Amino acid sequence: MSQLADLIQRYYDAFNRRDLAIYDRLFTPDCLVEGPGVQLRGIDGARAFDRVWMTAMPDGKIVTLHKATADRVVMCENRYVGRHDGPLVTADGTLPASGRAFDERYMAVFELEGERIRRQTLHFDRLLVMKVLGPTDTSARNLEIAQGIYAAYGRGDMPYILDHVDDDVSWGIESVAAGEVAAHGIRRGKPGVVAFFEAWAATADFQSFVPHDFVAAGDHVFNQLDYELTVKATGKRVRNTGCAQHWTFRDGRIVRWRGHEDTAATRDGFRP
User: Fold this and answer.
1) pTM score, two decimals?
2) Which of 55, 131, 190, 266 is most buried (CB neighbours < 10 A)?
3) Do 124 and 162 belong to one domain?
4) Residue 10 gets which letter from DSSP?
């Protein structure tokens, strides 16, 4: 590796370990950092530019694919790899954390002065960044989450369910039979969601559980559910079809879930 390429690699290594203090030795005081829609000057500007990407992807790493050097110039093709877990400030606005994986190529051109970087120019597809990390159809995403909850329940994946509910979620089946059917009633928060599923597991064995007819509209998802279960204490069979389920979302998390079923039929199954 040439001395010029080594300087750039030291900069990338510093970025990847989040060592912003060393920028004083890597950049000239009047350096220029520019990319699509942005220009920043000085070492603090170089730090500010890189902090944008560090904040947006706390685990983000620069992976160098190719380097070429000329007289005081280094050109690099890189990948930036990470998960979008923080806000990304762009010239087109701030993209809130999407949780999506990011792995895209870009070009960087460096002009050097002595043993420091005088100018860094970045070339990447701004529209591609918006496409990969920008807002999506919330209805489609909410529908995907609701269907994913049912799949997670079927495989016993409680962590998946809890990852998609709000800390203060309101969850349950409204029923005056809550005293007789352990799973009925309204619960709050993630512990309440756990208690809901534990109540069903402790009191009933499901023979069938079939969600269907999903419809999404903005922050709301509706579906129907057919199920059949045997009450452990009584041995009675309960069959409910066409139960209505209503999910309410806010910012991609479930803040309210209500199940509507023939509560009298369920209660009768729990009575001796």
Assistant:
1) 0.54
2) 266
3) no
4) H
Same domain? 16 vs 122: yes
Q: Which residues contact residue 11 at a Cβ distance below 8 angstroms, ignoring those fewer than 6 apart?
A: 26, 117
Sign (positive/negative) of CA torsion 90, 91, 95, 101?
A: negative
| 8 A C-beta contact, residue 229 and residue 201 | no
Token pair of 17, please?
A: 């370990």
Distances (CA, A) of 155 to 152, 167, 204: 5, 23, 17
d(CA 105, CA 151): 35
Instruction: Give the list of residues 6+ apart from residue 93 with CB closer than 8 angstroms, or none.
Output: none
Q: Tokens in use for 39? A: 């220009």
Tokens in use for 126? Answer: 């701004």
User: Tokens standing for 194?
Assistant: 């756990």
Strand duo 253-260 + 165-173: pairing: parallel
Could you list the residue range(s) of the whole structural domain that residue 65 is in? 3-133
Residues 48 and 68 in one domain: yes
Separation between Cα atoms, residue 33 and residue 190, nearest integer Å: 45
Interatomic CA distance for residues 227 and 222, integer angstroms: 17
Beta carbons of 186 and 174 less than 8 angstroms apart: yes
153-166 pLDDT, tens per residue?
Answer: 999 999 999 999 99
User: Tens digits of per-residue pLDDT, 42-74?
Assistant: 999 999 999 999 999 999 999 999 999 998 999
Backbone angles phi, psi at 179, to 5 degrees: -70, -20
